[in-house]
């Protein structure tokens, strides 16, 4: 009925305004519950006669998120950040109560420190750190004319925050139905989706279909999004076991599986074909993958799935084990039995390499299913924990902290020079905006949209303050007026296209109203206060545009150098690399590259593919390191591998020498495989060849991307075996 309302009026509604008249159900419920919570918190604050009651509904809109898990997590961290910021304000005012030229730099340093440290953590832990920074600034600026009341101001600020958080949590709880059961179901559905997608990708890769690796690359973004949502689902579950840890471990196994699929695709293209036994096993695995999605969601099928994978893996292990073949002498030639040699053909060795690779691939899938099954129910006595590793960017942390600190110093200078009565508001709101966007990788875009939201909020506040609010004298009609504006703001917040501007509107429009218990705001105070708020938005935009501005090309170059620096460290024999750490860091950098890519140009596409090729290269280097640590390989096999790792470690610019040495190592290990070694030694040689084949191909086809001395221009690149540039030669299979 709502959808046909504009048509009934013979009015063609612009698509941009559909979110008002035809909102989604989740968006409408979000706007409704948050508006009710904000009005409730304002009513309680007015009833308690708090000195700044409008900060309570501001807190409600600040912590409210589209999902309950996000709201509860943000509310928890907001309280922690507020307490830290209030404590810091007490200390700073106590240290320098009458020394502004020391007081303001100290606040700037604190905000810069909080903004920088927030870069190293994720989700709302980052929000808590920046909140502790700008909460300190807000309390200090409110108390500047009356520093002897710092404790009362700090307690008042904490009271508003806690009141707003409790109101939002209470109303949100009324709107939450079967929250814990739905959270379990949400985690299960997301993991099933990830596993189904990766199974389909493996199916296409084993079929050697065009575009299969592009499909695998796109899955990394999906996995990262799911990984962030697991934390919020855990909050919704309440008291629970370690289901979230198992879910994160399952996603890590899926990431490793996707990366291994790149290596599998390379081996299928580079090694000799027409392997009858391998093709038979692959067909059986493809049949397994074809029915996988329909069986995964059934509890009774889990053990059967794992049993089939274990059977296929055992077959791969058996075929990867060397089998000797006797040379039959030619007719008429006399040989002695003791002089007969035992050899293995290149084709047979290639088949063993493929079996070894397929067995590892099946093992990763088996681990992912096992962790998925463990995440679907609580296990008594389970103490499993999984740590997700993220890339910590020191340069980005410095940039964020420096910009935030400089913004406070600039606004403090304006306040001191002009002696503007609302200069403290300018400092406070600038600190708030810079804190909110300090950890954003491209804050310019966000602050511009935030400024637009401030402008809309100013217009609505003017309309309410001078037209509607003077007509009322009691709480009930006031709430009726405010709820209309808040509902529209909530609907805009739930719409992705208008969400950034709506965040500013919802957060600061109540502050522009200046609602108090016993009086309404006058014209002079309205214009002065809101001028300071608008100038805060302008100051933040100018700071982020002019001071260490974001450059996507420079950022991509810096992230690539960080990736290559960590890659060289993986090859260092004195280090102890972990697969989970390398995958976590690489996928985190990969997600940042995706977020930076506003337009998918060929250079950006090549850079993304190069990042994933480097991820695969690093994983195979780690696996070579594990072979060396097991000490089954003879010294004649260890020497060429060690030499390859040494040249990868010290190759800052060109990797052609490392690629040539890898080809030589492959030839040497193929020769060693023909000698009379024990089965375990030859199996380890097969595994080493499995990894070296991918290392050689990646080094050879990604020369420009692996050159850390200059920006990547997208040339000399190929992620797909068989699509190398014309001047490249195929992998030698001597």
UniProtKB/TrEMBL annotation:
Pfam families: FUSC. InterPro entries: PHBA_efflux_AaeB/fusaric-R. It comes from the Bacteria. Signal peptide: none annotated. The chain crosses the membrane at residues 16-48, 77-96, 102-120, 127-144, 150-177, 396-415, 421-438, 450-469, 527-548. Its main location: membrane. It is found in: Cell membrane. Keywords: Cell membrane, Membrane, Transmembrane, Transmembrane helix. It is a multi-pass membrane protein. The keyword Membrane applies. This is FUSC family protein.
């Amino acid at each position: 009925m709502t959808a046909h309302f504009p048509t009934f009026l013979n009015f063609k509604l612009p698509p941009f305004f559909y979110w008002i008249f035809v909102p989604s159900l989740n968006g409408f419920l979000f706007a409704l519950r948050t508006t009710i919570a904000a009005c409730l918190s304002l009513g309680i604050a007015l009833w308690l006669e708090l000195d700044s009651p409008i900060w309570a509904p501001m807190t409600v809109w600040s912590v409210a998120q589209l999902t309950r898990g996000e709201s509860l997590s943000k509310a928890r961290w907001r309280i922690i950040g507020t307490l830290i910021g209030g404590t810091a304000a007490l200390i700073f005012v106590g240290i320098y109560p009458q020394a502004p030229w020391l007081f303001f730099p100290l606040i700037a340093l604190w905000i810069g420190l909080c903004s920088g440290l927030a870069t190293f953590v994720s989700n709302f832990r980052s929000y808590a750190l920046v909140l502790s920074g700008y909460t300190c600034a807000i309390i200090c600026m409110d108390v500047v004319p009356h520093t002897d009341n710092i404790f009362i101001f700090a307690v008042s600020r904490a009271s508003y925050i806690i009141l707003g958080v409790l109101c939002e949590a209470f109303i949100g709880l009324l709107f939450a139905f079967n929250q814990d059961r739905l959270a379990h179901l949400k985690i299960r559905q997301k993991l099933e989706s990830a596993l189904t997608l990766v199974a389909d990708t493996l199916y296409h890769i084993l079929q050697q279909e065009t575009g299969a690796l592009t499909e695998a690359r796109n899955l990394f973004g999906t996995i990262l999004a799911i990984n962030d949502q697991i934390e919020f689902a855990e909050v919704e579950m309440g008291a629970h076991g370690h289901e979230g840890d198992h879910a994160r471990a399952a996603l890590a196994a899926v990431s490793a599986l996707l990366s291994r699929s790149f290596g599998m695709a390379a081996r299928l293209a580079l090694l000799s074909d027409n392997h009858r036994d391998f093709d038979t096993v692959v067909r059986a695995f493809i049949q397994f993958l074809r029915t996988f999605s329909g069986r995964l969601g059934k509890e009774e099928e889990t053990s059967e799935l794992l049993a089939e994978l274990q059977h296929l893996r055992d077959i791969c292990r058996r075929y990867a084990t060397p089998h000797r073949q006797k040379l039959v002498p030619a007719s008429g030639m006399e040989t002695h039995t003791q002089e007969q040699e035992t050899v293995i053909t290149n084709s047979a060795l290639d088949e063993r390499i493929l079996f070894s690779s397929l067995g590892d691939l099946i093992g990763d899938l088996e681990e992912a299913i096992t962790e998925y099954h463990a995440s679907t129910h609580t296990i008594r006595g389970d103490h499993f924990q999984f740590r997700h590793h993220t890339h910590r960017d020191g340069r980005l942390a410095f940039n964020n902290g420096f910009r935030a600190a400089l913004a406070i110093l600039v606004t403090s200078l304006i306040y001191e020079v002009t002696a503007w009565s609302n200069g403290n508001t300018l400092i406070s709101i600038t600190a708030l905006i810079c804190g909110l966007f300090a950890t954003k990788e491209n804050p310019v875009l966000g602050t511009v949209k935030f400024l637009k939201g401030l402008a809309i909020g100013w217009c609505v506040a003017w309309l309410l303050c001078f037209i509607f609010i003077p007509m009322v004298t009691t709480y009930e009609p006031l709430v009726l007026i405010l709820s209309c504006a808040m509902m529209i703001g909530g609907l805009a917040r739930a719409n992705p296209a208008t969400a950034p501007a709506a965040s500013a509107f919802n957060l600061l429009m109540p502050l522009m109203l200046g609602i108090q218990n016993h009086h309404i705001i006058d014209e002079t105070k309205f214009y002065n206060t809101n001028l300071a708020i608008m100038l805060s938005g302008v100051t933040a935009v100018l700071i982020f545009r002019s001071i260490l501005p974001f450059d996507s090309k420079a950022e991509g170059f810096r992230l690539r150098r960080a990736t290559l620096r960590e890659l060289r460290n993986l090859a260092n024999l004195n280090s102890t690399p972990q697969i989970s750490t390398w995958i976590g860091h690489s996928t985190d950098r990969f997600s940042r590259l995706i977020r930076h890519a506003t337009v998918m140009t060929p250079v950006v596409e090549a850079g993304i593919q190069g990042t994933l090729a480097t991820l695969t290269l690093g994983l195979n280097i780690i696996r070579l390191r594990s072979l060396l640590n097991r000490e089954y390989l003879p010294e004649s096999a260890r020497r060429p591998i060690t030499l390859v790792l040494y040249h990868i470690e010290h190759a800052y610019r060109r990797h052609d020498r490392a690629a040539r040495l890898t080809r030589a190592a492959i030839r040497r290990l193929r020769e060693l495989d023909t000698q009379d070694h024990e089965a375990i030694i030859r199996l380890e040689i097969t595994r080493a060849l499995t990894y070296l084949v991918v290392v050689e191909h990646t080094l050879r086809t990604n020369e420009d991307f692996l050159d850390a001395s200059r920006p990547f221009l997208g040339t000399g690149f190929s992620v797909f075996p068989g699509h190398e540039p014309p001047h490249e030669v195929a992998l030698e299979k001597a």
